[in-house]
Design brief:
The chain has twelve helices and 14 strands. α1 packs across α9, α8 packs across α12 and α10 packs across α12. 41% of the residues lie in helices and 18% in strands. It has a single domain, classed as Rossmann fold (3-Layer(aba) Sandwich), CATH 3.40.50.720. The protein has a seven-stranded parallel beta sheet with strand order 3-2-1-4-5-8-12, sandwiched between helices. A three-stranded mixed beta sheet has the order 9-11-13.
Length: 358
């Protein structure tokens, strides 16, 4: 029997992974205790997705446990140890701002939780492929020292710079920079995953995501840029733009395209590999540009407000260079672009609103 363990299984990347790999494995073991609701409130709850996955996928088995609980995780790994072929670790505390409110919780979830999973993989299923969803925030605010040019609706890197064509690659330093506490805890987990690959020669990969997005995102003000933006576009709730004149740029990768990266790595794994994984030049936008697209899709003017102060350590311009991954897996390509993503988010949210109104 082939078993895949997926943490954060009811979140955006976790649930996409469950649906993607359900047809490729005999059993999908999902781990998610809906801590997202504790982080961000009832609107961020993933209970609806736990129910959806349990109803839709017959070979999905759900465990509502905390990844900080080593003994609870150990029981699961012990039960399936001979059959575990893949571990996708997508559970996290994912917010800049929330981390600053509760640093101990943020660090223990992101760093200690990852260490628990790495060590249990080493102890029980050493040959399994271990995939960690990291973040571009491990680079801290180093991207803000790139030579940037202000355009009408966005910041852009100087066309003479080597990063202009494809975006920021994995050679950017992760040291001597302001990460935010969230970035620091994810960096600790990132380096641990590298080390288990290189020191213990395990099949590990780190995917440093740009803005990970898609229709199953439970976006909130503190996390989930495009999802929360579309929610505000639909409801008319005020959306607060934080600094940089609303011209800050993010690249956006659909959850399917990221999980498809996981699949390609699983079939031909390396040891301690690090990949930048975002929308690259294929799918990116500024805040102002995203607002215009949301207004076009909803045919409604958004209720936007501007606050001069930006988030500490936040990026002004981020576009991922995915050339390294493409060089290792040339058959991989994007399926969805920015407009596809926002159309899907809109459709999914309208369906969920309709269900609530019944």
């Amino acid at each position: 029997m082939k078993v895949a363990i997926i943490t954060g299984s009811a979140g955006l990347i976790g649930s996409e992974s469950v649906e993607f790999f359900a047809g490729k494995f005999d059993l999908i073991v999902g781990i998610d205790n809906n801590q997202r609701e504790q982080f961000f409130g009832k609107d961020a709850s993933v209970i609806w997705n736990i129910q959806h996955l349990s109803d839709k996928i017959p070979n999905y088995k759900h465990y509502s446990i905390d990844i900080r609980g080593y003994e609870s995780l150990k029981k699961i790994f012990g039960e399936y140890e001979k059959d575990i072929k893949l571990v996708i670790h997508a559970a996290a505390q994912p917010s800049h701002d929330w981390a600053a409110k509760e640093p101990l919780t943020d660090y223990t979830v992101n760093a200690n939780g990852t260490l628990n999973l790495l060590e249990l993989t080493r102890q029980f299923c050493r040959d399994a492929v271990f995939i960690f969803t990291s973040t571009n925030k491990v680079y801290g605010d180093n991207p803000n020292f790139l030579p940037l040019v202000e355009l009408e609706d966005r910041w852009e890197i100087d066309p003479k710079h080597p990063f202009y064509k494809n975006g920021i690659d994995e050679t950017m330093s992760i040291d001597n920079t302001m990460h935010s506490l969230f970035g620091a805890s994810k960096l600790a987990a990132d380096v641990l995953t590298q080390e288990y690959g290189k020191y213990f020669e395990m099949k590990t990969a780190i995917f440093r995501g740009g803005c990970l997005t898609g229709p199953n995102h439970s976006g909130t003000a503190l996390h989930g840029f495009l999802s929360y933006l579309m929610k505000c576009a639909i409801t008319g709730d005020p959306y607060i733009i934080l600094g940089y004149k609303g011209k800050q740029v993010r690249d956006n990768i659909h959850s399917y395209d990221l999980v498809n990266m996981f699949w390609h790595f699983y079939q031909k794994p390396g040891k301690g590999e690090v990949y930048n994984a975002g929308g690259s030049r294929h799918s990116n936008c500024s805040m102002l540009e995203a607002i215009k697209i949301c207004e076009k899709i909803t045919n409604k003017k958004m209720n936007c407000k501007y606050a001069e102060a930006n988030r500490q350590g936040d990026h002004i311009w981020w576009v991922s260079d995915v050339s390294k991954f493409r060089s290792h897996f040339p058959e991989w390509n994007y399926k969805y672009g920015l407009n596809d993503i926002l159309e899907q988010i809109h459709q999914n949210m309208m369906k969920r609103v309709a269900v609530k109104l019944r």
